Amino acid sequence: MSDNFLRLRENMVSTQIKARGIKDEKVLAAFHRVPRHMFVGPAQKFQAYEDYPLPIEHNQTISQPFIVALMTEALKLKGTEAVLEIGTGSGYQTAILAEIVKHVYTIERFEKLSNTASILLNKLGYKNISYWVGDGTKGWPEKAPFEGILVAAATANIPPALIDQLAPNSKLVIPVGDPGSQDLLVVKKDDRGNIDRENLGGCRFLPLVEEKES
After folding, report:
1. pLDDT in tens, 92-126
2. Three-class SS string for the chain?
3. Which domains does the chain have, with CATH numbers?
4. Of 2, 14, 63, 118, which residue is the catalytic one?
5. What is this structure's pTM?
6. Does 118 participate in catalysis according to the annotation?
């Protein structure tokens, strides 16, 4: 069984990720190491390495491998960073980041998803991850600034708190738009606090769940 999954993973990296332009060796190495099939349910294990998203609990999804790779590479990580992830979900993107950076701070709106992901990631041996259940649009101010922020859910507008918590000379990767039309944006903040945006193209993510005002 493990040999089958290893072959599927190697094929995923070569045909879906590397062949489509992902060049960062740190990113490619992370995809080689993380067992994606462990982040989905039993019925989806042999679909885990295919080029499409898969359902998880709370009507959420695990993103397709190429999008995870594209977003990770866009952060231009060196390996020494503290990174904020919005939307822990299954924990797969969290694991990819944890393979590369010094520490990952990850926020999830749904407590059950956060708990399930943390149990699995601890089982896999990741010690450089901190978890929080809350509204990702507010970021994690107590741990800011972050040398990279990755948002795995779409929002109509970039939350100002995330811009504020982004360290100088760092990047925020976020899907922006409505449910029918989104763009994957890379927001760059220079050492003077000026903001520049790059559009990586169209994408489709579930909406970012904000905390409702009482």
Report:
1. 999 999 999 999 999 999 999 999 999 999 999 99
2. CHHHHHHHHHHHHHHHHHHHCCCCHHHHHHHHHCCHHHHCCHHHHHHCCCCCCEEECCCEEECCHHHHHHHHHHCCCCCCCEEEEECCCCCHHHHHHHHHCCEEEEEECCHHHHHHHHHHHHHCCCCCEEEEECCHHHCCHHHCCECCEEECCEECCCCHHHHHHECCCEEEEEEEEECCEEEEEEEEECCCCCEEEEEEEEECCCECCCCCCC
3. 51-203 (3.40.50.150)
4. 63
5. 0.95
6. no
